Amino acid sequence: MTDFPESHRDLLDAQFATLATLGRDGIPQLTEVWFLHENGELKLSLNTSRMKTKNLRRRPECSLFVLDVENPYRYIDVRGRARLEPDDDYQFARRVGAKYGGADLRDHDAPSDSRVIVTIEPTNVFAVNMGG
Q1: pTM (2 decimals)?
Q2: What is the arithmetic mean of pLDDT over 22-50?
């Protein structure tokens, strides 16, 4: 569990974040994701067939970037390692879906897909406000 700066804690309830993972070739891959800030942790629900999930299995180093859409000079960048756990019963995916208007994440999965809970274990947290 990480103590996020009080000045940027509101961003942890934002609607979207950008997840950066490292591809097989070492080049970053960026994806907009849904996320939850729960019990002091940042967590995602990812489909196991997606490239970002495969990237995290191979190299868990990642970054979750949350921009203040009202003031784009303000953001939080959480860098660290991802811990992946199975979410076979979709219990966590249902909690994520609840944040997003009751969305059913199964709608984005093929019948053979499954989900994992990705918890970002921060090594660095950069809370930036360049004005405005």
Answers
A1: 0.93
A2: 95
